[in-house]
Structure formats: structure tokens, C-alpha cells
Design goal:
- A seven-stranded mixed sheet has the order 1-2-3-4-5-6-7.
- The chain is of the alpha/beta class.
- It has one domain (2-177).
- Mean pLDDT is 85; it is low at 182-186.
- It has helices spanning 2-29, 68-78, 92-111, and strands spanning 33-38, 46-50, 56-64, 120-127, 154-159, 162-168, 172-173.
- The longest helix has 28 residues, at 2-29.
């Protein structure tokens, strides 16, 4: 029973993340993508369709925290249980680099998976940290690398504050964050 409610909670979180992301994605691309349904493995997590064109995209979602203890604390709270308060142990700059390293690991893990989906496949890596603002970390984002081989047409990092940043195929801010942000050099692993 707990497994089922945890799975439902995870799917609701993924849908909320994708719904928020699509606001910026649609604004940037002039599209009208909406969530169609949850994906069933080996499909990506969320299947979306453009209400005007019928185009479909599959979005694989992963959420990264400072560390496993932070993730456990967040999920315990989401279950309505008392959780130990998570505290940062290093400066914001150090903690944020730690999160970006976890983002790199997640990109690598997801890049090695096989997905079955006929449309465009997008990887959306969301960060959950308290004070991580991607727009304030422009230089630090350069540590993120995209594997040479991966199944995705597009890869994005997205914070709990929004700030969608495309890592692949181009390194650039999208949506309302596009203006005034300088693209970073493209790195591959």
C-alpha cells in the first residue's frame, strides 16, 4: 500500500514539475503542449501533446537534492511524517556545486537508459535545494556536461524557482529567462 501511495505521490510531483516547465517551454517555442498522460515504462515519465499540431513529446523527470539525507527529509515530509530538519553544512557556493555534481550524475544515469517513445524525448533534471538560483550560477553551470551518446533530443535543468536552462542541443536559457542571459560554452563528456 505504501509503495502505491509513494508511486502516486511521485507521479503527481512529476506532473507538477512538467506542468510548470511547459509554461516556459511553450512561451519560448510558441507551442501549446499539455500533459496527456503518465508514461508507462519503458516510456518516459510524462507524455505531452501539442493541442494545435498533435505533436507528442515524452519528458523524463528526475529530481536532485543536496544529498540522500536531504531527499529522505523531503519525502518524509511529503508523506506527512515528521522528518529531521535538513541543514546545510557548507557555504551556498559549495552546496550548489554539490547539487550540480548530482545533476551530472543523473544525466549520466538517464543517458544510459532505453526509452520507447515515437516522438521527441526530453530529459528534465529538477533541483530541489533551498537557495539554488540557476541564474546566479551562470559560471558554475559550465561544470555540467552532456554525454556524447544519449537518447534525448533536448536536456534541461530546472530549479524549484523555475529558471529553465537548456543543456542540449544548445546551452541557453529558455522562456522568460532567455533575455539578458549569456549562453555558456557547450561541454560534452
Amino acid at each position: 500500500m505504501r509503495e502505491r501511495s509513494d508511486d502516486q505521490r511521485k507521479k503527481r510531483l512529476q506532473r507538477r514539475i512538467v506542468s510548470d516547465f511547459l509554461l516556459e517551454y511553450n512561451w519560448d517555442g510558441g507551442t501549446k503542449f499539455e500533459i496527456q498522460r503518465d508514461g508507462e515504462p519503458p516510456e518516459p515519465d510524462v507524455i505531452c501533446h501539442d493541442t494545435r499540431t498533435g505533436e507528442r513529446i515524452g519528458i523524463e523527470v528526475t529530481v536532485e537534492h543536496y544529498e540522500d539525507a536531504h531527499a529522505r527529509s523531503v519525502w518524509q515530509q511529503a508523506r506527512g511524517k515528521k522528518a529531521p530538519e535538513y541543514r546545510l553544512t557548507q557555504t551556498d557556493a559549495q552546496e550548489n556545486i554539490r547539487v550540480l555534481r548530482r545533476v551530472n550524475e543523473a544525466i549520466g544515469r538517464k543517458s544510459n537508459k532505453s526509452y520507447q517513445f515515437p516522438g521527441r524525448l526530453i530529459l528534465l533534471v529538477t533541483t530541489e535545494p533551498f537557495r539554488l538560483y540557476l541564474t546566479g550560477m551562470k559560471r558554475a553551470l559550465a561544470i555540467l556536461c552532456v554525454p556524447v551518446r544519449h537518447p534525448f533530443h533536448e536536456i534541461y535543468i530546472y530549479s524549484t524557482h523555475g529558471e529553465p536552462y537548456q543543456l542540449f542541443p544548445a546551452r541557453e536559457w529558455i522562456g522568460t529567462y532567455r533575455s539578458g542571459c549569456n549562453p555558456l560554452p557547450r561541454l560534452s563528456c
